[in-house]
Design brief:
Length: 1048
């Protein structure tokens, strides 16, 4: 298999890692940016073909305002395609009829004109081919320009309305230029001049930046075909235009991005002069206090050495003719040369990762990894050394896993647990841990994979545990070894739950101890539920019907409420009783009282997941049913009520047979359906993700889609469900935890239920829920790399194309655009660039959510198809900036890893010596007593549960926390999670022995000390002053040790 092909299906881990070296995880807040750019354009006449080129950036400054998104640059050379066709006169009329509104005129309202502009801009995205897309643009762009002009004639437009209109017009004019209309460039010049002269500082500022871009394009276009002298003159003038922006704007990411784009445009016309201009820009910005700008600038400055090494031509020759010894020798000569650069850094590392992705021969790829690892060991930038080693270990582990076929064997065991598949898993696992290149990263990465197959066989899991601990003695340090041992012990304990006697400390609603022995002699269904859980309440009628069905059997039902707010629980039950809907089985709770002060904080749901019962039983989602035998021992655990009828039927049909054997867990599922999430440090997740995506897919035996797992599928909705039953089923499936959703058969069952509901006569709302649920589950699994789920998703979306309902068409449109973005591997770069521009236009009008993460990953993969490092950097900038605006934390963090490329944390020298003041609410519901920490050395950890590097540091923090007594040393964490239940959910499985400051109080502390990247850690002296700032415990440890030694 080509190494290149691994990356699209692995969430492009290496390409992202090459961007996020040093960065860790960016914080939720961007650092503030000055926007007082002072680029002035003055129009001297009204010649529509004349653009006055800006001479300098001096001008009046206004208040700092947030920057407007600057659309992407048009290409220097207009494509050689036919000129735009005449717009059919009825385009607007057709749209007006569709919208049920009159044809818009200059007298139409602002809202109406904006609506028509928005709808027109959406139409090209529905194109089924590139040619159709171009035709739609030719028709629609002129109409959008006309509508924008109508808007701009109106008085008293707000700032937002003007920016909307200018942005829409700029986009339309840019599209017209790309389609061959050269007059559009002159119109762009006129528009940017109008913006620059606007009294509104934000409009004016963006106009000046757009004018700089537009003037550059005009100069380069006019110079083409006129001889070297004219091109040299044009580039010289562009350099003078850029020069004033090289001072005073080094902290402005917007200016840096625009200047880089200009440098890239010049590079296309004259590589030597373009490279020189890019180097000048990089030199000006290399010492920026914004570390993301500084790191990117330094990476650009490495480009001459990379070019001089001829590494890309050598790599291209080798990849095209890998059997040539001469090409192989030339490749390694180039690699040695580029690695000999004493200024090697992120730029060089990116280039080498690019090349490794293109190498087919595993041994050659490993040799390149070894050379790269050696060259990046011991750099002055220790953090860069650490991060590059981590990424190379990730890649090395991935290669080992592919060589041994680990994922296929684990998948086979999960889908068909036979003696043969069990033996194969143990054999390949033993071969892996004995591999001469085995490393800590790969060993730790196997934990989630072991979690997935644990239910298949306890003995296999136990043997894997033994093999892992033996390997740990050779590969892991003490902290890593402890983490591995604890994690494997958790997995083994969970699968051992069946057969144990359930005797939780429990009480009745009257406050009396509940006697589990009173249930002996009966099978028992223990229903874990809560008043705030909609699927739990929806399951009540089904449980009642089962209770009636088995009324003559020795079967009891017990409701186990995990509600933390007992008063609310009692009121809920009283209301149901008053409405003649009382529960027909006893309700019990944990024998545990919650502090009323904690409930007053509104954290009842969070507190529910801290209940002893949920921890002891490993419950991650409700409703969860634990089935007990007549001796009170656990038979099995199931998630949701759908599988309960089959489980009970299995139990009682077996019991009724003569010579019956003791009841055992039904065939579906094997043991426990409530598989828990096992957190793994971020450096160790790549193999886990690869394995999970492999496990999510199914072995392709040529059968029809869906048929493999619908037969005997434990997740399949009962065939007699009506539309109400199906909608309840879909709601229930939406609530399953991710480890359940990833299991074989789950997605197929959801798809089956959705199709059945769509085939029934039901309301539009029900049909939309069916379509959205199926698309959502399939999309999630496809995003993990399952080709089968991707195929099912494409087929399902195709089946919805003829549905004219607006919400379903919106759903179809999203998936069509995403699919175009995914299918770029066989396209040329100009075609890919066009798709990227189209996708950007679509995305900037959307509210970016979790579902856009897969598209974002595809975009990065598409960007990486360019062989020009500088071109990729430009695309990273604009898409990274777009994604950081998402409210979905993972997508925003993903965007920041693209955009920032490094930690933009606080300047340590500026913080050292300052007083550290901490105040606010903690995860215990109390306000922190910061004065109580005086006289101790304290480690402050700014972190979040979604931050992989933060989680990776927890074992290191625990180690130093255990190393020193509390009398002299302590830890205080500043948790920056935004979701209310994120920390509580994490702590349920990963208790931390120190205090966490939470919520807005935590955010305010981070802002006060300019913390913009995670993890950030500070060592605080006994006098409360900051001693040191770093991103890793290891870096802070010397300062902590010195401070402790100096204590009285």
């Amino acid at each position: 298999m080509y190494i290149t092909n691994w990356f699209p299906r692995l969430l492009l881990i290496l390409s992202l890692a090459s961007l996020s070296l040093i960065a860790g995880c960016g914080s939720e807040e961007e650092a503030g940016q000055d926007s007082d750019d002072s680029f002035v354009v003055v129009s001297q006449d009204n010649d529509p073909n004349q653009i006055t080129v800006p001479i300098n950036s001096d001008g009046e400054t206004g208040e700092s305002t947030p920057p407007m998104q600057v659309p992407s640059n048009p290409p220097v050379t207009a494509p050689n395609i036919p000129a735009p066709v005449n717009t059919p006169p009825n385009v607007i009329s057709l749209l007006a009829n569709r919208l049920g509104e009159p044809v818009p005129t200059a007298e139409s309202s602002v809202e109406t004109l904006q609506k028509f502009i928005t709808v027109l801009n959406e139409q090209p995205q529905l194109a089924q081919s590139q040619e159709q897309y171009r035709q739609l643009l030719q028709i629609i762009s002129p109409e959008v320009i006309k509508l924008c002009d109508m808007l701009l004639t109106k008085d008293n437009l707000s700032q937002t309305e003007r920016l909307f209109t200018f942005n829409a017009k700029y986009t339309a004019l840019t599209q017209s230029f790309q389609l061959g209309d050269k007059k559009a460039l002159a119109m762009l010049g006129q528009m940017t001049a109008t913006m620059a002269a606007d009294d509104d500082e934000l409009v004016s500022k963006n106009g000046r930046l757009l004018a700089l871009q537009t003037a550059t394009q005009k100069r380069l276009m006019d110079a083409q075909g006129t001889g070297p002298g004219q091109i040299t003159t044009a580039i010289s003038a562009i350099g003078k235009d850029v020069e004033p922006w090289l001072k005073g704007y080094t902290e402005d990411q917007e200016v840096f991005a625009v200047l880089q784009g200009i440098g890239l445009s010049v590079l296309q016309s004259d590589p030597a002069k373009g490279s020189s201009l890019l180097q000048s820009i990089a030199q000006a910005f290399q010492n920026s206090e914004d570390q993301s700008i500084a790191l990117e600038a330094k990476a650009t400055m490495e480009q001459p050495a990379i070019d001089n090494s001829a590494i890309y031509p050598a790599a291209s020759n080798y990849v095209n003719t890998p059997n040539s010894d001469e090409n192989k020798t030339a490749l390694f000569v180039a690699i040695d040369k580029v690695l000999s650069n004493p200024e090697r850094g992120l730029g060089t590392f990116r280039a080498l990762l690019d090349i490794i992705q293109r190498i087919e021969d595993t041994e050659v790829a490993l040799e390149v990894i070894d050379k790269t690892s050696a060259a990046f060991t011991g750099l002055e930038n220790a953090e860069l050394t650490s991060e590059t080693k981590q990424q190379l270990d990730n890649l090395l582990g991935r290669i080992i896993a592919e060589q041994l076929g680990i994922f296929d064997k684990f998948r086979a065991l999960l889908t068909s647990p036979t003696d043969e598949t069990k033996a194969a898993v143990l054999a390949v696992y033993r071969e892996m841990v004995e591999h001469p290149r085995m490393n800590a990263t790969l060993l730790l990465s196997m934990l989630p994979l072991v979690e997935q197959i644990a239910d298949a066989d306890k003995e296999v899991t136990a043997q894997i545990q033994e093999l892992s601990i033996q390997a740990a003695d050779k590969l892991l340090d003490d902290e890593q070894k402890n983490f591995l041992t604890e994690s494997l012990t958790k997995i083994v304990n969970r699968v051992n739950l069946p057969g144990l006697t359930l005797a939780l400390p429990t009480r009745t609603l009257q406050g009396e101890q509940f006697d589990w022995g009173s249930l002996r002699g009966n099978y028992v269904v223990v229903d874990f539920w809560a008043t705030w859980c909609r699927p739990c309440l929806a399951a009540i009628p089904e449980i009642e019907s089962l209770q009636e069905l088995y009324a003559d059997k020795n079967l009891k039902f017990l409701g186990y409420s995990i509600d933390a707010d007992r008063a609310k629980l009692k009121n809920f039950l009283a209301d149901r009783e008053a409405n003649e809907q009382a529960f027909k089985w006893p309700i019990v709770t944990d024998d545990f009282d919650v502090d009323p002060a904690e409930l007053e904080q509104g954290n009842a749901v969070d507190l529910a997941w801290k209940m002893p019962s949920t921890v002891y039983c490993g419950i991650q989602g409700i409703p969860t049913m634990i089935i007990l035998d007549p001796e009170g021992k656990v038979i099995t655990t199931i998630q949701g009520v759908q599988a309960l009828p089959a489980v009970l039927d299995k139990i009682f049909s077996t019991e009724s047979q003569p010579n019956d054997a003791p009841a055992k867990a039904p065939d579906q599922p094997n043991a426990s359906e409530n598989s828990r999430y096992l957190p793994v440090p971020a450096p160790f997740q790549f193999v886990a993700k690869s394995a999970l995506l492999s496990l999510a897919g199914q072995i392709d035996d040529g059968s029809e889609p869906e048929s493999d797992l619908l037969k005997g599928n434990p997740y399949l909705a009962p065939m007699d469900l009506d539309k109400l039953g199906l909608i309840d089923y879909l709601f229930d499936m939406q609530d399953k935890v991710s480890t359940i959703r990833q299991r074989p058969g789950f997605a197929e069952a959801v798809l089956n239920a959705s199709k059945r509901l769509l085939a029934l006569e039901a309301s539009d709302k029900f049909h939309v829920i069916a379509a959205e649920t199926a698309c959502g589950i399939l999309h999630e699994q496809a995003g993990l790399g399952s080709e089968k789920m991707d195929e099912l998703l494409v087929q399902f979306v195709d089946s919805l194309k003829t549905d004219t309902r607006e919400k379903i068409q919106t759903l179809v449109k999203f998936h069509q655009i995403e699919q175009r973005m995914l299918d770029v591997d066989d396209l040329s770069w100009p075609e890919i660039a066009t798709i990227l521009n189209e996708t950007y236009t679509y995305l900037e009008k959307q509210t970016l959510k979790e579902k856009h993460l897969r598209m974002a990953v595809a975009i990065v993969h598409a960007i990486n198809q360019s062989e020009e490092l500088a071109v990729r950097a430009e695309q990273y900038q604009r898409f990274g900036k777009l994604f950081t605006g998402s409210d979905f934390r993972r997508l925003a963090s993903y965007g920041k890893s693209i955009l920032q490329a490094a930690s933009s944390g606080p300047d340590a020298s500026a913080l050292v010596g300052k007083d550290m003041e901490i105040e606010g609410l903690t995860d215990f519901g109390q306000r922190i007593d910061w004065k109580a920490y005086r006289g101790k050395v304290v480690l402050i950890d700014f972190w979040a549960t979604w931050c992989g590097p933060c989680r990776a540091e927890i074992p290191n923090i625990k180690a130093i926390h255990n190393e020193f007594p509390r009398a002299v040393f302590d830890v205080v964490a500043i948790n920056l999670d935004r979701e209310e239940d994120a920390l509580a959910t994490f702590l349920k499985e990963n208790p931390l022995p120190w205090t966490n400051v939470i919520g807005n109080d935590a955010s305010n502390i981070a802002k006060r000390y300019s913390v913009t990247a995670l993890p950030t850690m500070m060592a605080i002296g006994p006098d409360g002053k900051i001693l040191a700032v770093a991103h890793r415990v290891e870096t802070l440890k010397p300062a902590i040790q010195r401070a402790i030694k100096e204590l009285p």
